[in-house]
Each structure stands twice: as structure tokens, then as C-alpha cells.
Amino acid sequence: MAVFAEKALLAEGWKKNVRITFDGCSIESVTPDATPQAGDERHAIVVPGMPNLHSHAFQRAMAGLAEVRGPASDSFWSWRTVMYDFALSMTPEEIEAVAAQLYMEMLEAGFTRVGEFHYLHHDKDGRPYENIAEHAERIGAASTSAGINLTLLPVFYAHSNFGGQPPIDGQRRFINSLDSFARLMDASGKVTAKLDGGELGLALHSLRAVTPDELQTLVANHGNGPIHIHVAEQVKEVEDCISWSGARPVEWLLANAPVDERWCFIHATHMTKAETTEMATRGAIAGLCPITEANLGDGIFPAETFLQNGGQFGVGSDSNISISVAHELRQLEYSERLGLRARNVIAAAGQSTGRRLFDGALSGGAKALSGATGLAAGASADMVSLDARDVFVRSDDQLLDHWIFADGVAVDSVWTNGRKRVADGRHVDRQRIVEQFRKTMKSLVNS
Ligand code: ZN
């Protein structure tokens, strides 16, 4: 199987007439300045698949259902009440159907790997299922059904607020002890081991949900895989952390946890300059979720300082209200522009903003999910072809600028593990996946 691209974005930059051959799940060879051969599938533009480093799949079911203004001023915390209602009502079958729909939409958008920050573990009454990894298996099955690479991040969640406060009733499906969590991690490892491109990482829900002792034990037992944590998304969370410890959340983690490039701080929205600089220097990835952060009114990530200090970032769709590689990267840049009243904030002088956003999110996302990406021999055959027929540009990088900012470029085909999952912009199994999703949503919305 081979794909011939008139232009392809390799690690060394744009190349012309690139022939890419597959060997099973992997890329066998990448040859620029090649001649197409009989049987090659021809495409105009091919780029690597983008990792989506932060998702809560079940939240896709409530997209568009929390946009009505309440009696008082709305906030993250009132959104969370709606989210808990959904979290408490879903069955394993419903979770799988919603996740499959979501993962299909991610592929159609050009995402080829998802980091599933998975915290909805138990039955509706809060008791573990007979198989503690019932939902992890459902997430694995949904990823197989759609054909997306999965980095499963089982979440440890034990408390409702700083200082080890007991969980509230609405959190009952999320809660584990260290012992039950060790069993869950074991079983989750068996789920990912069976998947093409499956990876396992550790997630700590937040500093609200885990005590310092628990954090230490979990990190010590985890080995070398990625470690994700929600941190400093909300001002109230920062204030609560200061009242508890005297330190801000990122400041506390940098002082008390072995933070390095294995770590991915999800959101990290509210940081001082000193925190931002040290986080960048220590190599922790900033897991940014620009559309969700805008939707929830979180605030603006201090990208300029972070990037000036060599910080690495990736993007995730988090609440899954909207699934788009282009719009996620666009929102990241636009939030910075609005905050700083400036243009082209993320790029270095003379550089294309689209290219900087794309390269940054590609490499940071891959690191955060232990999933190498890029068009190179030996890499997983995960790639995206773009349709830019009606787009006129002066440089190849401007194709990315157009895709991200100007809506003229569309995702045409997507491959993961050497298999074509999307053709002409539509998932090859769309009908089957959508039917299950529709059935599920009718019953969820009417319940
Ligand atoms: Zn999240």
C-alpha cells in the first residue's frame, strides 16, 4: 500500500512528490522527489495526524445542553452540575456509543490519537462493576470501532477538595482507594495492550482530588509513562489551594512533585510569571484545551512567556463541545490576541503562525501521549490528507494558515495504523456508528 503526495510535511519541512509506503501499522518508507507508481493512491497534501491530548468522552453527550443562562451568573461550577447529571445517568453501552461517535468525529477532524482522561469508572450507585475496568474496556472498544489510537489515562480521584475532604455524592462514580485504583490500572493495561497503538498513562484528577501522600505513592508506582493532571483551571481553585497550602497549584506541584517531561499539566491557565517559566524549564507539557477553556470562561494561558522559555504544548478537546484541529489551534492563538491586543503571538518573528501552532501541538501532544507521530520510516502510519483545491497561497506554510484561520482547507482522508478511516471527509463506518449514537442520545436526552 502506498500514498503519493504532491506535497507532504516531513520533520525536515515541506517536500514535493513524496511517496509513502506502509508495512502493516507502520510507515515503511518516505521518499521525496519520487515518481508515482501504478496502484499508488494520489493525494495533493499530506500532513501527520494530530494528537488530541485531553478528552472526557462521555461529555460529548452534553454538547450544546449547558448553554442556557441560569438564575445567577453562570460559571464552571454550574456547568459541572449539568455534567454530573449526565455522568451519573449513563450506562456502559451508552458510554461506548457516545465515545465511538466522538472518536469518529475526531478522525474526521484530523486527530489520529486521543488521550482519554478517564474518570467515570463505577456503576450508577458508585459501586465498582464486577470487572473494575468495565468502562475502560468500553472506551477501548469505542477506539477500535472508530479506529483511533488510544492513550488511556485512568484517573485517580478520591476527594472533593484540598486537604483530603470526602467526596460528594455526585462524584460517587469517580472514586477509588489506592488499592482499587491499582487493580484498575492493571486491568486498564490489559485493555491497551490489546489495541493497535494502545498506550497507558496515569492521571491524577487534580490537586483537589488527591492528597500529597496519595500523589507520591501513585507517581512512585507508575514507572516512566505520562502523568496528566488538571491544574489551575479556575481562580477559585487557585484560591482554595493557597488557603490549604500557602502555595498556588502549579507552584505546589513544582515544589512537591518530581515534575519533568513525563508530566502534562492540563489547563495551567492561572500561573504567575515565575510558575510559567519554571514549568517550561522543567519540560512539563502544557495540555491546552482552548475551545473548552473559552466555553467555560476559564481564562487565558500565558503562552508568550511559556514559549519564550522553551515550553512545549499540545491541544485537547476536553469537554468535546466542538471537535476540530483547526478551530482548537485557532482559538489558542485568538485567545492570546484578545488578551494581549496583538497579532501573531505564538509564532516567532517571520514565522507562519499556522505552522508554529501545528508543529508545536504535534510534538507536544505526541510526547504527552507516548505516541510518536510524524511522517517517517518506522513511525505509526497515522496521517491526514488535505483538500485545498480552492486555496491560493504564496508559501506551503500558508496552507496551514489557511486551514487553521480561513476555513478554505478541508480534511479529505485520514489513516491510522496504515488503515484508511476517513475518505472524502467522512468516516468509512459513519452510518453504523451514528445509528448507535442517535439511539443513545434519544434515550439520554429524554430521560
Ligand atoms: Zn478535563
Characterise this structure.
By secondary structure, the protein is of the alpha/beta class. It folds into two domains: 2-47 and 376-431, Urease, subunit C, domain 1; 48-368, Metal-dependent hydrolases (TIM Barrel), CATH 3.20.20.140. The chain contains 14 helices and 17 strands. The strands form two sheets. Strands 5, 6, 7, 8, 9, 10, 11, 12 and 13 form a nine-stranded parallel sheet that branches. An eight-stranded mixed sheet has the order 3-2-1-4-14-15-16-17, covered by helices on one side. α2 (92-109) packs across α14 (430-446). The site of zinc ion (ZN) has 6 residues, from loops.
Name its key features.
single chain; alpha/beta; Urease, subunit C, domain 1; TIM Barrel; 2 domains; eight-stranded mixed β-sheet; 14 helices; binds zinc ion
Topology overview:
Blueprint (H helix, E strand, L loop, with lengths): L1 E9 L2 E11 L2 E6 L9 E8 L1 E6 L20 H14 L2 H18 L1 E8 L15 H13 L2 E8 L21 H16 L5 E2 L1 E5 L5 H11 L4 E5 L3 H11 L3 H8 L6 E5 L5 H10 L2 E4 L1 H6 L7 H6 L3 E4 L9 H16 L12 H16 L14 E5 L9 H10 L3 E7 L2 E5 L2 E2 L2 H17 L1
Helix pairs in contact: 2-3, 2-14, 12-13
The structure holds zinc ion (ZN).
Task: Give a concise summary.
With 447 residues, this protein is an alpha/beta fold. The protein has 14 helices and 17 strands. The strands form two sheets. Strands 5, 6, 7, 8, 9, 10, 11, 12 and 13 form a nine-stranded parallel β-sheet that branches. The chain has an eight-stranded mixed β-sheet with strand order 3-2-1-4-14-15-16-17, covered by helices on one side.
